[in-house]
């Protein structure tokens, strides 16, 4: 990417709020049900049907707003956003236009080696639309089917200021935002299921320029990776166009995951006039300060606080602490394990190393992990006590990951316990020394390799189970006595 | 006297005494419908079998107040299992899977639903000529319109086809037809009666109300339908009084205002005279009657036509052919499906209003039209507040003229819109108002409008009942002929 240009990115994130029922009716919000089984006349937009706001939606919006350092409005309202589309039953979406529930917040990200504050313009409540289903592809399908299960599922749209300056920062923002949504428990943040969605407003400008360039809004970003790649591609495209003397147009583009390019969907001229106006079926909302304070008091530890705690209480590096606070599941696992074994750095190393590797290989979330924090803690205690070596622990850990068995049981079943008994080891060492007088000579004449040979022989005789530290000490004592 | 000539409270009395049974009542009304419906044409859907079945049920079990008493519904109240057309091709075959809240309440009280009544399509009109199916005729002069949009509801009550009906009033759609047909029409305060299950025209103005033969029936039905509904966020959670308690309190000492703007030019002379006579009666019987001003009245109608059409343009957007209602099967793509279904499903007046409302909300016009209309609305509300600081009620004619001839105003929408000029301010302010018969002009009924403070339906009924009793103007029988 040309360094003469600066990339400017703002993100619009839609988070599904984790409520039992939809925003304006009693239908379930559960994901993955048979099409059109979670639909009633209200969320299907039948004649004469009226919305009744789900209080839980407002509570979760307040919760998110507070976690994002937003101002919570005293007074807000719902508006109708009007457009025709077959997945939009009423032909308008209930959303919030000029009076959103949350305004002017921020969150902090660590990216490209520095910490940075990213401002949040607003967060507002709205309802989701249904889903269109096509046989094969949208272009070849003979018909379109409509699934309204998602129609009326509550969303919070969180809009950042254009404060992000690189694909990496955009990713860090999205990761931090997801962490906050997960920590506050307002959303399950699953990008692949669509419960967390993201549109990116991308523009470029010559470095030093104050005014923003012409932006493109990029849709269909279904993963952190897609977000990063799409911004990278789009910035490159815009810079190349500008350098060729082209004039950019404000437009909506979509990310083509297969071809790894953005493609134009529609220009600003083709955009809808949404004719926003206050929804007369929903009275304006007054939010008492008591309610806001009640919600504030119920907020759990936030990712930044947790990260700080891990650094100050356990001396973990910022980087480790950042990774361990990406989700509350990571943090809980860590906290529970550390409470039992005290060795925070060891817990962190195992979680960030082998555990993350195995989870990724198996495409699993940490919540699906078969072994418990207590089992990891006991494994670490067994290493500390010398019962097993670090090397043995690796295979025990894999076994724990696969089966969820206790480490002690795995060690027993596989006969993997470390031999630390000095009498037992002494006898083995004695036999080996007796059998190799030549090597003993080599040792005494100063050949370093000789000592390693004896260690290897002991390990071989004990099938690797000998405690190396004890073997080393006993061997040295025995050989030096020989020489005396 | 035939049973169909009686009021609800008279029928209830006879039922209480055991002199009649529900089956006899329903039969009498069904026979009446058979006799006069071909002249009046009030019903879009008539379900005699269902009515007889419900009457039989009412005979077998003790029930609520309305046990066995028939009623009709303007065809925008959703009724489970009975088609709800809004007098539109768009919903010609639409059978809702639910009952509106008010329908539920009447059923629970034992009311017998006879059928669905004609109206202007989607409640847009003042003559019921904008029904996609046929026009309804005024029982006082069959060559005249019954008013609208609840024209079928008013005509059916006037003709004795049902003892009462429900209508909806967005800009006068209960009071204006009540006035034209010589019946009582009450539009309650916005939020007093649930709108759930009532197909919306303009959500911030629509209110469900009663058309009946006399004021007491209006109070009785209000007792049944008024009250908070958790399914309607705009319904108000306020205790509902027993409205019949107000009826016999009289009007001594009551302060009644009449706005000079509502007796000015454009009001038919004999209508003005008839209502002035009524005001004189109030004065003679102990009320204080004084002239006041509602200075922003002249802006009410234009502002109304922006607010109402703006809301309607989005309320009616859901009729797109995708999930219910008319669907153009020849459409080649989604845009055609939307536009052809709507082009074929909606009539001219509905299209006119959707276009007007869409324009009023469009980017670049919103401030000049919709927003300005909301500001006018506020001023109108303030006008009323000022008057109600000093007075209990405001009285005016309900409509500038008596019922006009069928076809007279078709093709001249502005003149037709003018017939709502005296009723629209009430909707803009969210207030309750009633129209009661107050005499005749040229052989046609003249309606008097009584407007009250928010949630003061009781006071309105009190004055209306006193007048009705004092002047002997209740349950008038129209000739069902040509004047």
Walk me through the topology.
The complex is a heterodimer of chains A (484) and B (483).
Chain A: E1 5-16, H1 55-67, E2 71-72, E3 75-76, E4 79-82, E5 92-95, E6 102-111, E7 114-127, E8 131-134, E9 144-147, E10 154-160, H2 167-184, E11 196-206, E12 216-221, H3 224-243, E13 251-256, E14 261-267, E15 277-278, E16 285-286, H4 289-297, H5 303-314, H6 318-324, H7 328-341, H8 344-361, H9 373-384, H10 390-403, H11 407-413, H12 422-435, H13 437-444, H14 448-461, H15 468-483
Helix pairs in contact in A: 1-4, 2-3, 5-6, 6-8, 7-8, 7-9, 9-10, 12-14, 12-15, 13-14, 14-15
Chain B: H1 8-17, H2 22-40, E1 43-46, H3 48-60, E2 70-74, H4 101-108, E3 112-117, H5 151-158, E4 164-168, H6 175-181, E5 184-187, E6 208-212, H7 215-225, E7 255-259, H8 269-284, E8 288-292, H9 297-315, H10 334-345, H11 348-361, H12 367-390, E9 393-397, H13 413-418, H14 424-429, E10 433-441, E11 444-452, H15 457-471
Parallel strand pairs in B: 2-3, 2-4, 7-8, 7-9
Antiparallel strand pairs in B: 1-3, 4-6, 5-6, 5-10, 9-11, 10-11
Helix pairs in contact in B: 2-3, 5-6, 7-15, 9-11, 9-12
């Amino acid at each position: 990417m040309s360094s003469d240009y600066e990339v400017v990115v703002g993100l619009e994130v839609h988070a599904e709020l984790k409520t039992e029922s939809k925003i304006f009716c009693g239908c379930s919000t559960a994901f993955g049900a048979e099409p059109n089984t979670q639909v009633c006349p209200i969320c299907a937009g039948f004649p004469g049907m009226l919305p009744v706001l789900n209080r839980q939606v407002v509570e979760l919006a307040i919760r998110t707003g507070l976690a994002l350092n937003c101002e919570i409005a005293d007074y807000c309202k719902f508006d109708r956003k009007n457009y025709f589309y077959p997945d939009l039953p009423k032909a308008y979406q209930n959303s919030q236009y000029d009076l959103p529930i949350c305004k002017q917040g921020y969150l902090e990200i660590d990216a490209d080696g520095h910490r940075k504050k990213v401002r949040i313009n607003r967060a507002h409540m709205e309802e989701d639309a249904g889903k269109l289903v096509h046989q094969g592809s949208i272009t070849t399908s003979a018909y379109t089917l409509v699934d309204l299960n998602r129609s009326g599922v509550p969303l919070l749209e969180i809009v950042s200021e254009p404060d992000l300056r690189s694909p990496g920062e955009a990713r860090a923002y999205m990761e931090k935002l997801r962490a906050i949504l997960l920590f506050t428990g307002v959303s399950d943040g699953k990008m692949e299921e669509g419960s967390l969605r993201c549109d990116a407003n991308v523009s470029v400008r010559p470095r030093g320029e104050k005014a923003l360039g012409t932006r493109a809004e990029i849709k269909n970003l279904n993963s952190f990776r897609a977000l990063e790649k799409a911004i990278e591609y789009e910035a490159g495209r815009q810079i190349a166009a500008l350098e060729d003397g082209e004039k950019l147009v404000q437009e909506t583009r979509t990310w083509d995951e297969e071809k790894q390019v953005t493609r134009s969907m529609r220009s600003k001229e083709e955009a809808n006039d949404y004719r926003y106006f206050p929804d007369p079926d929903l009275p304006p909302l007054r939010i008492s300060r008591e309610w806001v304070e009640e919600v504030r008091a119920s907020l759990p530890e936030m990712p930044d606080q947790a990260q700080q705690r891990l650094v100050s209480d356990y001396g973990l590096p910022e980087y480790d602490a950042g990774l361990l606070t990406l989700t509350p599941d990571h943090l809980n696992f860590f906290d529970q394990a550390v409470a039992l074994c005290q060795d925070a750095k060891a817990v962190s190393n195992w979680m960030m190393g082998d555990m993350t590797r195995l989870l990724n290989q198996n495409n699993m979330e940490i919540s699906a992990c078969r072994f418990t924090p207590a089992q990891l803690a006991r494994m670490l205690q067994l290493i500390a006590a010398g019962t097993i070596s670090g090397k043995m622990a690796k295979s025990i850990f894999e076994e724990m990951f696969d089966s969820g068995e206790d480490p002690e049981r795995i060690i027993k079943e596989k006969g993997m316990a470390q031999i630390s008994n000095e009498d037992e080891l002494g006898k083995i060492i004695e036999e080996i020394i007796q059998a190799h007088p030549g090597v003993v000579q080599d040792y005494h004449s100063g050949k370093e390799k000789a000592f390693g040979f004896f260690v290897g022989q002991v390990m071989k005789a004990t099938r690797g189970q000998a405690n190396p530290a004890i073997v080393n000490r006993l061997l040295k004592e025995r050989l030096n006595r020989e020489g005396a | 006297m035939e049973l169909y000539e009686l009021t609800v409270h008279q029928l209830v009395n006879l039922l209480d005494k055991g002199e009649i049974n529900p089956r006899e009542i329903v039969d009498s009304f069904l026979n009446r419908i058979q006799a006069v419906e071909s002249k009046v044409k009030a019903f879009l859907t008539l379900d005699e079998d269902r009515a007889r079945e419900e009457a039989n049920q009412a005979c077998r079990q003790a029930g609520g107040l309305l046990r066995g008493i028939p009623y009709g519904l303007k065809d925008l109240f959703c009724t489970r299992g009975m088609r709800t057309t809004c007098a539109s091709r768009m919903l010609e075959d639409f059978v809702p899977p639910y009952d509106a809240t008010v329908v539920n309440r009447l059923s629970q009280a034992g009311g017998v639903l006879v059928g669905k009544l004609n109206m202007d399509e989607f409640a847009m009109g003042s003559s019921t000529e904008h029904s996609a199916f046929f026009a309804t005729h005024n029982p006082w002069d069959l060559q005249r319109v019954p008013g609208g949009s609840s024209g079928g509801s008013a005509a059916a009550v006037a003709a004795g086809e049902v003892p009462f009906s429900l209508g909806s009033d967005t800009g006068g759609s209960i009071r204006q037809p009540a006035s034209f047909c010589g019946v009582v029409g009450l539009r309650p305060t916005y939020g007093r009666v649930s709108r759930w299950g009532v197909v919306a025209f303009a959500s911030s103005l629509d209110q469900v109300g009663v058309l009946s033969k006399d004021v007491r029936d209006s109070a009785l039905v209000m007792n049944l339908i008024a009250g908070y509904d958790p399914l309607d966020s705009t319904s108000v959670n306020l205790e509902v009084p027993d409205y019949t308690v107000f009826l016999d309190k009289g009007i001594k000492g009551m302060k009644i205002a009449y706005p000079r703007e509502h007796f000015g030019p454009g009001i038919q002379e004999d209508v003005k005279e008839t209502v002035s006579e009524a005001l004189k009666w109030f004065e003679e019987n102990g009320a204080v009657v004084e002239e006041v001003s509602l200075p922003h009245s002249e802006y009410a109608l234009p502002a109304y036509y922006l607010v109402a059409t703006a809301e309607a343009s989005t309320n009616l957007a859901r009729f797109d052919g995708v999930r219910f209602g008319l669907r153009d099967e020849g459409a080649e793509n989604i845009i055609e499906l939307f536009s052809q279904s709507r082009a074929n499903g909606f009539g001219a007046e509905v299209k006119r209003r959707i276009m007007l409302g869409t324009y009023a909300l469009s980017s670049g016009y919103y401030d000049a039209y919709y927003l300005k209309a909301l500001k006018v609305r506020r001023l109108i509300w303030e006008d009323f507040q000022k008057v109600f600081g000093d007075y209990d009620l405001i009285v005016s004619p309900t409509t500038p003229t008596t019922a006009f001839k069928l076809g007279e105003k078709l093709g001249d929408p502005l003149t037709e819109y003018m017939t709502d000029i005296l009723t629209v301010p009430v909707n803009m302010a969210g207030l309750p108002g009633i129209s009661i018969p107050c005499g005749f002009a040229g052989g046609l009924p003249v309606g008097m409008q009584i407007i009250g403070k928010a949630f003061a339906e009781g006071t309105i009924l009190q004055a209306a009942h006193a007048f009705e009793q004092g002047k002997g103007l209740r349950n008038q029988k129209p000739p069902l002929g040509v004047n």
